[in-house]
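Example 9 (inverse folding). The structure is encoded as follows.
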């Protein structure tokens, strides 16, 4: 899907791959071989924010601990997408000189659990349907080599499936809710299973939650600069300024005033 060492170029996940990951036996990769006392081989550091200057849906991450962090996610359910999480991973494996290849972790994906913060956000039948479709407990597959001695990789995966956003957005009267996500990244090291610590992340979901209506386009001055949202993953985390041309919404807004 993407390169995860040095720099990373992100692209949307193919729908069939997402569905395949969800129907994989969830427990198959859950039991990673880790040392006792929380000494996991993989450390999940953060959700990496989009790099400055990214355009056109193609983003290059630097795999550096200095990259900015997103401490909480936001997903506009009207965007028709899921929530993409860019995990920064760090190896806790050490290697002597010349042993880097043998001590490189090959990451295979993340075991994800999702729970609604508000139990009234979905009905019991809707919750059972989501569970039957493996949308609340699933394996999100991705590949990334993680070199030893503090090596870092940035890699993106769909943390919240688009199907959940679509279900919520179709509900009459829906405004906002939150999903609490926990996940464990898993991989292989020299034939053994390894894993990360459990990482917790919260995402607020809402209808048109990131669209800011600035009124008629003709009323906006030519000096107006619209916020254009998330250049890497449209529909999440950052606001988009919109305006109206008659009855037609324009997003991002284009000022036509003097």
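The amino acid assigned to each position is listed next.
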């Amino acid at each position: 899907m993407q390169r995860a060492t040095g720099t990373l170029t992100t692209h949307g996940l193919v729908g069939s791959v997402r569905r395949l990951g969800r129907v994989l036996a969830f427990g198959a990769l859950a039991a990673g071989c880790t040392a006792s006392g929380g000494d996991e081989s993989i450390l999940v550091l953060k959700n990496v924010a989009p790099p400055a200057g990214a355009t056109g849906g193609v983003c290059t991450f630097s795999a550096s601990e200095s990259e900015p962090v997103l401490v909480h996610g936001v997903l506009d359910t009207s965007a028709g997408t899921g929530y993409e999480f860019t995990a920064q991973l760090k190896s806790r494996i050490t290697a002597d000189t010349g042993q880097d290849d043998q001590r490189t972790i090959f990451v295979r994906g993340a075991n994800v659990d999702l729970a609604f913060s508000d139990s009234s956000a979905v009905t019991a039948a809707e919750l059972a349907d989501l569970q039957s479709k493996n949308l609340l407990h699933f394996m999100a597959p991705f590949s990334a080599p993680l070199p030893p001695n503090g090596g870092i990789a940035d890699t993106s995966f769909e943390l919240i499936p688009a199907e959940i956003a679509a279900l919520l957005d179709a509900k009459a009267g829906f405004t906002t809710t939150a999903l609490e996500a926990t996940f464990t990244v898993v991989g292989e090291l020299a034939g053994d299973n390894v894993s990360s610590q459990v990482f917790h992340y919260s995402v607020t979901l809402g209808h048109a939650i990131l669209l800011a209506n600035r009124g008629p386009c003709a009323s906006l001055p030519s000096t107006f600069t619209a916020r254009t949202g998330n250049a890497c993953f449209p529909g999440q985390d950052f606001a988009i300024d919109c305006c109206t041309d008659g009855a037609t919404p324009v997003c991002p807004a284009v000022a036509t005033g003097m």
